[in-house]
Write a structure and sequence with these properties.
The chain is mainly α and about 80 residues long. It has helices spanning about 1-30, 40-65. It has one domain (about 1-70). It is built from 2 helices and no strands. It starts with a helix and ends in a 9-residue tail after the last helix.
């Protein structure tokens, strides 16, 4: 059971980091499209990080379950 919790947590964190990296690239390339025209709005940035990171985390977790050998996570 501890292995399952560790695998789920690891994959959620990796997916969240990928989502944050995608957001960082988008803000670097086109900050005005995400509402950062007059500097960085920190509340908006925090909500965008959550908005990009969480779907990537869940998507990475679900995708990794599909590619798990024998569809077992507890070994």
């Amino acid at each position: 059971m501890d292995t399952l919790i560790l695998k789920v947590a690891t994959r959620m964190i990796i997916g969240f980091v990928i989502g944050c990296a995608a957001l960082a690239v988008l803000i670097y390339v086109h900050p005005q499209h995400l509402g950062h025209t007059h500097g960085i709005n920190y509340l908006g940035l925090a909500l965008q990080v959550y908005g990009f990171g969480l779907p990537f985390a869940v998507g990475f977790l679900c995708t990794s379950f599909v590619f798990e050998p024998d569809h077992r996570l507890d070994h």
